[in-house]
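Lecture 7 notes: from sequence to structure.

We start with a single chain of 334 residues. Read the sequence below before looking at the structure.
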Amino acid sequence: MGTAIKFEQPDGNAIKTSNLSRDEWLELRQSGIGGSDIAAILGVSPYATAYDVYQSKTQPVSEDSNEFAYWGTVLEDVVAREFAKRSSLKVQNVNFMMRHPVHKFAVANIDRAVVNRDIAGNVRYKDGKLTTDQIVEIKTASEYVGKNWGDEDSDEVPDQYQCQAQWYMGVTGVDVCHMAVLIGGNKYRQYRIERNQDLIDVLFETAHDFWFNNVLAGVEPDATTLQNAKDKYPRHDPDTTLDVASDSETAKVFEHYESLKAQEKELKTAITAAQTDLICQIQNNETLAIDGEVVATYKTQVSNRFDSKSFKTDMPELAERYTKQSESRVMRVK
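Now the structure, written as tokens:
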């Protein structure tokens, strides 16, 4: 069981974010389900799970920043300007967290909105929707995942971003979500995703169930990744044993795990033997080519490693000062 949170509805359906501190903004995100949450709840995000989202809504605010997220934020303005230039559309910042007027758990922080002068001269959140019919989401992606993006000007974006786009359209009331992406730092593409009400209905239904039956009820979702399982069960209860029958589901899971570990051992042995043979074929050459195409390299590289053993011998007091104890559970098959 997790810890149920007390959900207090902020006043109004549009909360200004430009004057909030980073911690205040992160706390505000805990008051609902956003576009970056919904794909994880559905199980189609490669970066997070429903369990992760649950923890982010019910535990004290924390931020796990990384280089990729940092550069995504830095490059957002650059990519947005390029979108405006190539599309000949005027875009505007919307510095509000928007909340659906009926489904209060549904929130949206969009990157940009398109100004449609046939609707309004600027974009605001009025009467439960934006005063425009189009929004823009800005993305950066590594070259490695570039293959997940389809033909430009199509709606062929990765599933997690399709969910995000439909979620934002559902919250804001618009009909189109443009998506501009910079791939590998030098390949720009843009996409057009149209509103799909059937999908929006599924997203809202799933989010409603998660919000009320998990987050507000304090019921943790199932762990679906190894890291989730380790986080959910970080410590053992001393002197306890789970004793099950040989035909139980737990026994079957154990036998499957044991079988896979045996296969892993055999596979590692085979890979080592194959690598040995390959090195003996390459010998002192730097690269291996097949019919003129380089398929492998075998280069000498230099690395610097910290000699902890010598450090402890030469400077034991300093080593003790900077030694940090860690705790983890280890599984060993008898």
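The chain is about 40% helix and 15% strand. Keep this in mind for problem set 3.
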